């Protein structure tokens, strides 16, 4: 059999192959049922459940509702798929000019109305850039365009300093305008943002794209350019552009140039243009809704403002109000009627005439006193709502007539219904059903290949979880025997910050540095090449264990930012020359080892890398797929792998490679960047200490020990693959010792 040819560098990939999305029958049914769910439910599912196959299938349905299917090119783009970056930028620029005028008028509204508009836009503003969250992954690196996008993504997140990132800057700008919202992943975020259904549907599209960026790379490129070049959120809040338009246009032009030599280039350009067209449509649609919303809000009477507040809070009213009566009914019965719906106009009429609104001698009323400090309803309404109640009470006291029209807000509902119907009717032809239960994956090579392409194999997520858990469980045998490791010491110890740092120092000096002596004999060329091949598969997925850590909804811990920064370093922070996946391919090429990309089917047939080494890489990818439920284990694994880059082994490899005139850049990069003084090894220990310090503050010392055991399991799972001689020794029965006879 002829070995498949390696893929050339630089990697000019513009799209991954169109493949089916495989799922078991239960997942297919669950995802299909969610097509008729409310947009808020879909939003929360996409945002907060990032480890389930159902979420990936749901994302596919959402994208099918918004984007034309491959066989159905967008009519406006079908005639021309040869547009240049300047053509696209000019088109987007024209729409930006239109929207800038509309947004300018929105900013001219009274402060209260402008605040309401900004609040309505907030879910989209605070999602900004989420489509880049996992665009960098094993299936896409080291693509040139992916590196460009990832470099911009890292900067948008603050380049390791979240306070400088786009998300925090936007949140501060919202707060300057009076809009205070919880973190986007919290259960009441959409409620607090008062998000209309249309806003929720648009947010669902962006989140769905963020779940499948490898499968929809041309769409990611188009959405990224169009959203940032339009800059609606910056226009609305008066903030500077997140990235210069010239830089965005340069990335777009580079991508389009790559499509000229791609066998799928015409289709990729069509898909990109369809995504740009969709963004222009969505942003026009949303700005039009904001304009209508502003007019509705500005025209609200005091009665209508209070009615909207009552409607928002009524679902949360408890039985503690059973003694309060409004008209002939108890307040509890108003808010929990047998019909299931609050009769808001009737309630407002009775509330107006109730004793609670009757003026008191001090110019207030019983209701206003009840919502102030010391009153039974203090803390229910925020300052903005309390001010609306005060204005309404004054209006009632002045004898102003009631508002006869208290119809609820329906702004944008017509367009929202269109998107809801599109999702309900979505039936992507590329979703295929595979048998439930155990899958024939005895072949580790095949399993690894599918995990790399996990977006198309969501049915394997439960199997990946099983492999990860099995590897972690097996590794605990090193809790007893780990001190005898050559490169690691996974033996158990009780955690304190001091004990962890002391263990790290001892491993560094006793295992990695002090034993080092230069080699006196250098193996021959073939032996050196074979040794490098045994490491190569792990190197080809360098950083994978952390590639999902920085996703939206996972940035509230300092440890998240630090670990994501380590991943960014492994990927060169967008600089191809520093990207470790690029470097390892260059090293292998210096040995005349040319491999297909691990995402390609051809990789299944390569005969350069030994089959028995796939378990290590499978364990690493399996951990990476569960950054929520296996977070602690990832922290421990990260410590193990970052320390492994130091000392004796790395120095010996450099000596061997140098003797045979092979590329040493991969070894040198790790020896430098992983240093224990301030590099990844020290950062990895600091991440654990910081994380457990937060656990102690939030949950107490007993929780620290529980979390610590899981962290050390993660470290041991790395050691378990590295110390294969020790593991074999542990598992080999020792011969019985004969009794000594004198």
Q: Can you characterise this structure?
A:
By secondary structure, the protein is mostly helical. Helix content is 58%, strand content 1%. The chain has a two-stranded parallel sheet with strand order 1-4. Strands 2-3 form a two-stranded antiparallel ribbon. A hairpin with a 2-residue loop joins strand 2 and strand 3. Helix 1 (25-33) crosses helix 3 (53-66). It is globular and about 100 Å long. It starts with 20 loop residues before the first strand and ends in an 11-residue tail after the last helix.
Give the tags.
single chain, 742 residues, mainly alpha, two-stranded parallel sheet, 34 helices
| Biggest sheet: strand arrangement | 1-4
Helical amount among residues, as a percent range? 55-70%
End-to-end Cα distance: 65 Å
**Number of helical regions:** 34
Low-confidence stretches: 75-80
What is the beta-strand fraction?
under 5%
Q: Pairing-aware structural class of the strands and helices? A: mainly alpha
| Major sheet summary line | 2 strands, parallel
Radius of gyration: 30 Å
- The geometry reads as globular
